[in-house]
Every structure is written in structure tokens, then in C-alpha cells.
Amino acid sequence: WIFYPMVGMYALTLFSGAEYTGKWEWPLIKNGVLPNVAIKYFDMSLLCDDDIKLDASKKFLFGVHPHGIFPYGGIVLYASESPLLKRFPGLSIHPCGATVIFKVPILREYLLWTGHLDATRKSVERALSKDKNIGIVIGGEAEVLQTENGKERCVILGREGFVRMALKHKATLVPLYAFGVNDTFTIDKTSGYWLRYHIQRALKLAIPVYWGWMGTPLPHKKKITVAVGTPIEPPAEVKLDAKGNPDPELVSKYHGMYVKALQEAFDKHKAAAGYKDRELELLQAPKRKKKGSGKPKKA
Predict the structure, then answer these.
(1) The predicted structure's pLDDT at residue 286
(2) Where does the pLDDT of residue 292 fall: very low under 50, low under 70, confident under 90, or very high at 90 and above?
(3) Residue 159 CB neighbours (<10 A)
């Protein structure tokens, strides 16, 4: 009989709104075993030019690429043993995740305790307005289905919302590329792809077919190397329209600057990361509410 009241009490926490505020963040978990085991398991390291400075007094929006099956590169945003946070002490970053993952018991608690926020526009803008640093896996669920072993793909073209928010709140954009993420699982790209693609488009839910070590869900032990791109400072003054948005031409300009910085970081550091023969494919993001089918197109 005690089971049902406990389930009811837990269900109430789903309406706490903690994923929009970060109020359940628990430093003990961020400094604990689980996030830092991942840092060690993937032997995570950082590639960053000496002239790149990330002043903790400034506000940043970090773009994490690629998503992979799971966005393991994003662990460097919050784990206490992260090579990124060790290189730039004083940084406190809130990673953002899809709304649906905050509905999964246990995973929800882990995300909330490690400072994750819902990746909705309202949530991200609220955090930026309070001068919090944000990390977003830009490619989202669309990029999950584009993940393929031996390939490096980013769903980035036409995806300008994060740039718009950064300009509006005068946050510096920083691209991060995590080499090795796409090879942490063995991926089956063919089985039921058409169906999975349309489920992703309709429900914003990616259903990849994959397996890890010995056919288990445990990821392969692949080294992950995170390359830091050149930070893109916002202009000194950003004029907003009646709806509170920056000029679309300015957004497009800075989006182009971001894509260029991401490409340059990839090309500059791929050899040192052990991927000298790989090329970065920039993909067009699927248009929202578009009827019909069709795969994201290659640039």
C-alpha cells in the first residue's frame, strides 16, 4: 500500500519546475564519482589555443558538437575533473537537455543535481538573463539519426536560435567539438531508418539502433578529445526589435562566424585528436512543421 503514495509523491516532483531554474543543483554530485568516472573512462582531454581566454566574469553560450548517440562531450561542461573547467577555473556552466529526458526517473534526478536545464527557449533565455553560462548540444535529436561510425557530422545550417539568444543577452559564443563521440557505440544506420526518421520529426524523439562493448549498452572505451573554437564576442550594442529580438541579418552574420569558428577548430585540431583523415560535414537542420519527408541535406 505504501507504493502508490510514494509514486504519487514522486510524480509531484515532475511539476517542480526545477529543470527551468536549476534550483536542484547539488555540487556534491558534480564533484562525485559518476561524472568523473566518465571523464576517466573516455580519457577526456582538451585541445585549446594558448590565446583563448574564457574570463569567468563574462557570460558564455557553449555549443557542443556532435551529439552522437549520447552527447558525452557535454560532460566537460560540469564534471569537477573536466579538463575544460581545470583549464578555465571559475567557470560554472549549465548544460541543457531535451524536455523529454527530464521525464525519465533517475536520469531526471542526475540531470537536475548536475545543474542541467531544459533546452527550451524560455528556460535558456531565463538563465542567460540571470548571467548564467549555458551549454547546448546544437544538433539535438536530428543529429542523433545522422550519427555514423567513421563520420563527423553537425546539423548546424539553418539553426540560428542559439545565436539569436546569445546576441540578445550579450553572451559570448564558444564552439566545442568532441572528437571520438561518434565512435563510442556501434551504430546500425539502415534498420528502420525511414520510420525512425519520421518519428523523430513528429515527436522530437530520436530512436537510434546501436550497441556498445560486447553488445551491451556500455559504450566502447574511446578517447574523447574536446577542441575549443575561437570565442565570438557579441557586439558592444545590439538593437532589439519590438519583440525583443536582434536584427535577422546580424543573427545570420554571427551564425556564419560561429560555423566558421567550428570548422576552423575541427580542421586545426583533428590531427592532434587522432582524426586527421576525417572531414566535417555540415548538415541543414530540418525545418519545423514541414509536411512531407526528406532527410537533412548535406551542404
Answers:
(1) 86
(2) very low
(3) 21
Residue showing cell 537510434: 208
- Please spell the DSSP secondary structure of 62-81, one letter per residue: EEEE---SS-GGGGGGT-TT
pLDDT digits (tens, 9 = 90+) for 43-83: 999 999 999 999 999 999 999 999 999 999 999 999 999 99
Helices (H), the chain: 3-13, 18-21, 27-30, 33-41, 83-87, 107-113, 121-129, 140-144, 161-168, 193-203, 248-269
Dist. CA 209–CA 294, nearest whole Å: 20
Residue 209: what pLDDT? 85
Cell reading at 227 = 577542441
Where does residue 270 rank: exposed (0-12), middle (13-18), buried (19+ CB within 10 A)? buried
Q: Where are the alpha helices (DSSP H) in 116-229?
A: 121-129, 140-144, 161-168, 193-203
In 3D space, the residue among 106, 54, 107 whose CA is nearest the CA of residue 76 turns out to be 54
Nearest one of 60, 72, 172 to 127, comparing CA atoms: 60
Q: Any idea which residue has 583549464 for its cell?
A: 87
Collapsed DSSP state (helix, strand, coil) of residue 61: strand
Give, for 231, the enclosing helix (H) or strand (E).
Answer: none
Beta bridge partners, 154, equal: 282
The answer to whether 87 and 56 have CB atoms below 8 angstroms apart is no
**Weakest-pLDDT range from 115-124, 208-217, 274-283:** 208-217
Could you report how far apart the first and last alpha carbons of the chain are, in Å?
A: 58
Contacts of residue 80, Cβ cutoff 8 Å, sequence gap at least 6: 30, 31, 35, 36
Coil vs helix vs strand at 96: strand
Short-list 135, 31, 133, 29, CA closest to 73: 135
Q: What are phi and psi of 176, to 5 degrees?
A: -125, 135
Give the CA angle between residues 87, 134, 22 to the nearest 5°. Answer: 110
